[in-house]
Amino acid sequence: MTETTRRTMVLGAGSAGLAAVLTACASYGSPTTEASAEPPEDEASSDAPKKKTEKKAAKALADTADIPKGGGKVFESQKIVVTQPTDGDFKAFTAVCTHQGCTVASVSNGTINCPCHGSKFKIEDGSVADGPASEPLAEKKITVDGDKIRLA
């Protein structure tokens, strides 16, 4: 008679369990004819919302009339500042100061102004007009469509 050892039992049971798991996994994710078939007529499939395939236009950030010529406006929740250095020329920059990450608060006298340490950035290109910041504000892409300004 052979004596069944603990190791034999564990290995034997493990092999059988592993075989069962591998068999179950082999069919996981395989397409079935039921899943790809049309729903039965008695199911209310027409009530389900349809997915839209066309891309919806981005919500307008602002109207062009909201951005004063020679100034700008800070959109704090979007962390964006939009400026209009010259008539009809709109620019957008991050509203996060490059000095220590404060949100800029205002646009006046041709500069975007940070309230934390006094950094100022030019409305034309976001470059530093007055420190302590040493890096410009990153430019953000926008589109102007009619009288609407949108993030690109």
Instruction: Extract low-pLDDT stretches.
Output: 30-40
Globular, elongated, flat, extended or rod-shaped: what is the shape? flat
Largest sheet: 4 strands, antiparallel
The CATH architecture term of one domain is: 3-layer Sandwich
Structural class: alpha+beta
The top level CATH class name of one domain: Mainly Beta
* Mean pLDDT across every amino acid position: 77
What is the subunit arrangement here?
Answer: single chain
CATH homologous superfamily placement of one domain? Rieske [2Fe-2S] iron-sulphur domain
Percent of residues in beta strands: 25-35%
Q: Under CATH, the topology of one domain is which?
A: Rieske Iron-sulfur Protein
Please provide the ordered H/E string of secondary-structure elements.
HHEEEEEEEEEE
The separation of the N and C termini measures: 80 Å
**Cross-sheet strand order for the largest sheet:** 5-6-7-8
Question: DSSP helix count?
Answer: 2
Helix content: 10-25%
